[in-house]
Amino acid sequence: MHRSFGITRAAIGLAQGIVLYFLDAAFEAKTWPATDALVFAPLVLVSVFVPTVAVAAIGNLRPRNFAIWTVAATVILAGLGAYDILRDPGGAVDIFQALLNGTRPRGVPSITLWLIVPVGLFIAQALIVSGDADRKFMAGYGRYFDIAWKHGVQIVLAALFLGAFWLLLWLGAAIFKLINIDVLAELIAKRWFALPASTFVIACAILITDVQAGIVRGVRTLTLTLLSWLMPLMAAMTVAFLAALVFTGLEPLLSTRRATAVLLFAGAALVLLLNAAYQDGPGEQQVARILRYAGTATAVALTPLVAIAAYAVALRVEQYGWTPERVVAVACVVVAACYALGYLLAALKSPQWLKWIEPTNILAAFVVLAVMLALLSPMADPARIAVADQVARLESGRISPEKFDYQFLRFRSGRYGVEALARLRAKQDGPDAARIAERANAIWCRTVAAWMLAPERMVETAAYPAC
Fold first, then answer.
1. Does residue 290 sit in the same domain as residue 353?
2. Alpha-carbon dihedral angle through residues 189, 195, 197, 199, given to the nearest 10 degrees
3. Looking at the structure, do residues 326 and 392 belong to the same domain, yes or no?
4. Is residue 61 classed as helix, strand or coil in its secondary structure?
């Protein structure tokens, strides 16, 4: 790898840490840009993720494609960060402070973004780097496999390298403390050192693992080989579970109220283990007979597992309506169904052993990206869908005003819930309009009093014009 790429990566990592330090200092001091949430949240997302994406991509993408991908990632992350604030400007607790008191709204991206964005960027980066390497939009499956697992191993090794770096620094500080020298201990406690040092070390780790590609490939092969031999165990348990359902029925499963989540996690484990055994295709390596049988069983068993998960969540939606959790569950079911149907066809129709897994995995990667973007945008915002459905159930009389969860609107659905609660307070027509308005007004006033005022300043809610 060209020396200039290494210097550029190290410089990007160092610059990233410096930017993060200044953003952190602004947040602590409550100065701009931290005082403007619509600016601060996008800046945080872009500063955390885009340099890391750039460090991993530089040298692996042609300059034009590198520039396009970096700009596109910046724009998408900035948009997601801005929408995250617009949909919930004050967070779950202090939204009234933001809307009624005019205080500084939340400027830190939500936990949802921190969980979903890295996964989306990982998938997108693997697709883009693979396509660039093969010089076409759709790369060969072997290329996708190699790039994706390479990036995955790099992330793990970079995390371990960062952990070892800080462990050694703390050990060094402890050694110097033995002779009453606290300089190193004081240094590593400073954020102006800790943040740039950490991002610099991560950039160096990615550089080293790129240079030592053989080591990364060896770690990958060993990891996948070990995982593949867990597949027969998981396949046997899944087949036994499906057979047991014939005798127990679905009632015990559905009564747990967590059937969908458990089944989807089991399905994800099956997909991971099956791909660990398949790797980049049997043409590249010989697969043991027991793994072939277990792989075929896994590919077939995945469909009924996902079907039961879909039925379980559909039943809850029919009974109790949409909630943000159920919207996310359905999105996961959609992704799982892509894998399940594709793997079923691979088991029944592939000319070679599970050959159709390859196009299924590629298609599923694009589906995952589309689903993630939909969930994080107004298109399929779980809070928007849940609020609209629950309010419709209330206004249609499917749920009584006494049993309706007004707290959900107030605390757990962001701007959409607060706006819906405000509309319900002014409701004058429709079934039970007066009771709905009374209860909506009561919860609005009670939460204003509880969250806006300190105990020593508590007054009657009638003192508020809004109440």
1. yes
2. 150
3. no
4. strand
